[in-house]
UniProtKB/TrEMBL annotation:
<dbReference type="GO" id="GO:0032787">
    <property type="term" value="P:monocarboxylic acid metabolic process"/>
</dbReference>
<keyword id="KW-0560">Oxidoreductase</keyword>
<comment type="similarity">
    <text>Belongs to the short-chain dehydrogenases/reductases (SDR) family.</text>
</comment>
<dbReference type="InterPro" id="IPR020904">
    <property type="entry name" value="Sc_DH/Rdtase_CS"/>
</dbReference>
<dbReference type="InterPro" id="IPR057326">
    <property type="entry name" value="KR_dom"/>
</dbReference>
<dbReference type="InterPro" id="IPR050259">
    <property type="entry name" value="SDR"/>
</dbReference>
<dbReference type="GO" id="GO:0004316">
    <property type="term" value="F:3-oxoacyl-[acyl-carrier-protein] reductase (NADPH) activity"/>
</dbReference>
<dbReference type="InterPro" id="IPR036291">
    <property type="entry name" value="NAD(P)-bd_dom_sf"/>
</dbReference>
<dbReference type="Pfam" id="PF00106">
    <property type="entry name" value="adh_short"/>
</dbReference>
<protein>
    <submittedName>
        <fullName>3-oxoacyl-ACP reductase FabG</fullName>
        <ecNumber>1.1.1.100</ecNumber>
    </submittedName>
</protein>
<dbReference type="InterPro" id="IPR002347">
    <property type="entry name" value="SDR_fam"/>
</dbReference>
<feature type="domain" description="Ketoreductase">
    <location>
        <begin position="8"/>
        <end position="188"/>
    </location>
</feature>
Amino acid sequence: MEKAFKDQTVLVTGGSRGIGAAVAERFASVGMNVVIHYRESHETANEVARRCTSAGARVMTVTADLGCREQILKMNEKLTKHGMIPDILVNNAGVSHYGMLADLSVEEWDQLMSINLRGPFLCSQIFMKAMVERKYGRIINISSIWGMAGASCEVAYSTSKGGINAFTKALAKELAPSGVTVNAVAPGPVNTEMMAGFSVEEKAALEHEIPAGRFAQPDEIASLVYYLSLPESGYITGQIISANGGWVT
């Protein structure tokens, strides 16, 4: 790879909040080109973009429904036009669902799978083309500990993240000969809006089960994503790395 790391471009899907925002700001802190994807949170995405810009990064915000191939293709055209073709793709966008499987509608199941599984599939398929041509690239999927261990009352979410783990392992084998690595970061509970559906008591019970005694902070997950993106991490591929405070080993 002839391009210096700091001159590379990272695309973070779902980059307007939580882990995605932390990832975008981590790359911006070293002056990289950062593309922040969002679907509806325009103002929130712009606020993250302002923080990234103030850190010295060149920043773009883009909107797209990641379940729609045509919209992702248009996003790719826009990035190509502005010289922001991703060297690093962070498939972070995702939604959760808490409730009994017996109460889950088919529509809710399909929406969750569209965002959590179809989105990473389409983004990887479209953006990896340029990586393969350059013989260099990084794809990092944000999974979950529940994709490894499963969670009661989160069957659909666990299923989608288990699918991401399998997707990661298989795609890594396909792309390894082309110099493109594919890994997944599977955090335990992280202190983001995704935990908003849990009561204070439920959160306390979870923290009690975690040997570290606390939830992760978004910037801790962002640091792991950043490490997997480095040129010197090129021999790490097909791995599901779980930052979970010792909860699941």
